[in-house]
Amino acid sequence: MSEGCTPKLVYERWTDPVAGHILEAADIDVIKLDLTAPAEDGWALMESAHGYQVATRTDVASLPDGEQWLVGPALVQRCEQLLAVCSAGAGYDVIDVEACTRAGIAVCNNSGPGAEAVAEHALGFMLDLAKRITGADRALRRGPLRDRQGLRGSQLLGKTLGVVGLGAIGRRLVELCAPFGMEILAYDPYVDEASAAQRGVSLVQLDELVERSDFVQVTCPLTAETHGLFGSAQFAAMKPSAFFITTARGAVHDEAALYDALVTGGIAGAGLDVFHEEPPRPDNPLLHLDNVVATPHVAGITTEAARDIAIATATQWQAIFEGRLPPRLLNPDAWPRYCEKFNEIFGFRPSTATALEKESPSR
Fold first, then answer.
1. Is 167 part of any domain?
2. Which domain holds residue 166?
3. Domain identity same for 164 and 126
4. Does residue 227 lie in a domain region?
5. pLDDT (mean) for 131-159
6. Catalytic residues, which ones?
7. How many domains does one find in the chain?
8. Which stretches make up the D-isomer specific 2-hydroxyacid dehydrogenase catalytic domain (predicted)?
9. CATH code at 122?
10. Hey, CA dihedral for 95, 100, 102, 103, is it positive or negative?
């Protein structure tokens, strides 16, 4: 770094303290953003920041003006020194990527480290719904139980799995389902047929996937392309015996349309880790259906994932401030302007890698 200029990184929280321990050894000024402090204190900090580890939507949801700490056009315009922003996990819907790209701000996520946790959770939903584990538990607790046959479930063996989004999570889910001998379909416009075939996956259009699948698993990120991807038409096309499962983001599916499909028998059940409003209100109609298994956006929250994500987060920030290409850069179009800004602030240009491929938005 140029003399007298130390990178300033602002964060709201780490998934594991190990991130802080790693960054303590680097020449980086790491400062915590207190979301409960007066807004002017937060802005004074943010306006001088070079990097921002973005607060999650869940963290700011209960604050009156919490949304201001997500990376939208207003924050981008106000924080002129900002060079890079990173999300805590694979999802990056808390960041306006286009606004950042226009301003020469690098946007990164942490896809990969938490994939195992989310993929296992998704498989857990499949087993729970097929075997009616939660449903049987509820019935047993209500008692007395007179007819076990009414709780008859099904098996995963030989069924068809449809994966929407073949990123890190989707790919790992495919691997976990291999012992069940399932036919695997996938919809992902960013993946080519050869890559899918290497994983034993058949690429299809979304219409075909929902019509043929016994389990529809949504593992894609929330983007302009995926917002509202699942609505009445998609649920109507599914088999009455099929299950809809999502560990993505709530806005990818229409909750009212899903509710209608569940209460009318259009589909057999749903496993939901995400909702439009998080945490969902207790009176959310979906939470009162016996054919719904729900968790409060915890699929990626495991001890192992938290540590892995924290390590990946810290090492990515090290790479950024050392002038190297971020390993999980989401907006390569920002790179030329980013390099100019970086040079203006720190006195040297980052790695001039030019062959930046646009990959599938990964979860």
1. yes
2. 115-294
3. yes
4. yes
5. 93
6. 249, 278, 297
7. 2
8. 74-331
9. 3.40.50.720
10. positive
Contacts 24+ apart (CB under 8 A), 42-48: 42/69, 43/78, 45/10, 46/10, 46/75, 46/78, 46/79, 46/82, 47/78, 47/79, 47/80, 47/81, 48/8, 48/81
* Secondary structure of 72-139 in HEC code, one letter for each residue: CHHHHHHCCCCCEEECCCCCCCCECHHHHHHCCCEEECCCCCCHHHHHHHHHHHHHHHHHCHHHHHHH
Any domain includes 359: no
> If residue 172 lies in a helix (H) or strand (E), which one and from where to where?
helix 168-176
Q: Read off the pTM.
A: 0.86
Q: Is a pLDDT exceeding 70 seen at residue 250?
A: yes
CB 46 within 8 A of CB 68: no
Q: Are residues 136 and 229 in the same domain?
A: yes
Residues 104 and 204 in one domain: no
Residues 152, 102, single domain; the answer is no
Residues 314, 19 contacting (CB under 8 angstroms): yes
Q: Which residue has the tokens 């030329």?
A: 336
Contact indicator for 363, 91 with CB cutoff of 8 Å? yes
Q: Report which of 33, 169, 113 is spatially closest to residue 311, judged by C-alpha positions.
A: 113
Do residues 37 and 124 both lie within one domain? Answer: no
Same-domain check for residues 161 and 179 = yes
Q: Could you tell me which residue, 319 or 4, shows the higher pLDDT?
A: 319
Please list, in sequence order, all residues whose beta carbon lies within 8 angstroms of the beta carbon of residue 116, skipping any fewer than 6 positions away. 172, 304, 305
Query: pLDDT category, 357, cuts 50, 70, 90?
Result: very low
Q: Assess whether 130 and 103 both reside in one domain.
A: no
Q: Which amino acid is at 303?
A: T
Judge whether 271 and 293 are in contact, CB under 8 Å.
yes
For residue 5, pLDDT over 90 is answered with no
Is 275 found in the same domain as 220? yes
The answer to whether 245 and 216 are in contact (CB under 8 A) is yes
Q: What is the dihedral of CA 46, 50, 53, 57, to 10 degrees?
A: 40
Cα 275 to Cα 357: distance, rounded to the nearest angstrom: 32
